[in-house]
Amino acid sequence: MRLGFLASHGGSNMQAILDACAIGSIKAIPALLVCNNRTAGAIERSQKANMPFAVLNGKTHPDEDALDQAILNSLKDAQVELVVLAGYMKKIGPRVLKAYHNRILNIHPALLPKFGGQGMYGMNVHKAVIAAKETKSGATVHLIDEVYDEGPILQQVEVPVLPEDTPEILQARVLTQEHFLYPDTIAKIASGEIKLP
Ligand code: GRF
After folding, report:
1. 3-state SS, residue 88
2. β-bridge partners, 144
């Protein structure tokens, strides 16, 4: 199975998946990184792993539809079969969504369907969880569709929310678990244990 990553920032989840592919615990080939941000840490990580990358964004393609098509072309050229969103801060265009229907994974740093949707990204999520006095949070790997954070859930992991938690502390606790959950989910898809619709 050939993996294509879309990332915008550090790419620590992508790294966890690359590492799992390197040691054979995920039976898949990291084929391509598409990144909208030329200075993202994810690019350096892709270079270290000898995985090709492409920078595609509103500067390289000012027209939204042309950008969508360019991203699709890159994924197809690299023969990507499963698209892995790894901290990608842009909306996926309709062409990519259609071509990779039920083949685009995302990880969200909360227990969906709670704390998902518009504006629920980065630290906003953890602030909202603490403000709501939740006693547990976690991470969710799900398929994406046209609506943010609403595709079928594949796997979740829970972490406690402690009374003295700051959003930063909670984020770190969740991220540590993301680095196990995301590779584990992809390993199970690659082995057939998780069947995509
Ligand atoms: C993670 O918190 C993930 O849940 C969210 O974006 C963040 C990406 O972090 N979708 P990284 O770039 O993988 O370090």
Report:
1. coil
2. none
Q: Whose CA is nearest to atom 10 of ligand 1?
A: 87
**Chain center to CA of 172:** 17
Q: Is 193 exposed, middle or buried (0-12, 13-18, 19+ CB in 10 A)?
A: exposed
Tell me: the pLDDT tens digits for 141-192? 999 987 767 899 999 999 999 999 999 999 999 999 999 999 999 999 999 9
Q: How far is the CA of 87 from the centre of ligand 1 (A)?
A: 4
Residue nearest ligand 1's atom 5 by CA: 87
Measure 108 CA to ligand 1 centroid, in angstroms: 7
Of 9, 61, 101, 108, the catalytic one is 108
Task: Concatenate the DSSP letters of all residues of 128-164 into one string.
Answer: HHHHTT-SEEEEEEEE--SSTT-SPEEEEEEEEPPTT
Beta-bridge partner residues of 143? 105
Tell me: the pLDDT tens digits for 11-28?
999 999 999 999 999 999
Return the exposure string of 166-177: e unless at least 16 CB atoms fall within 10 Å of the residue's CB, then b. ebeebbebbbeb
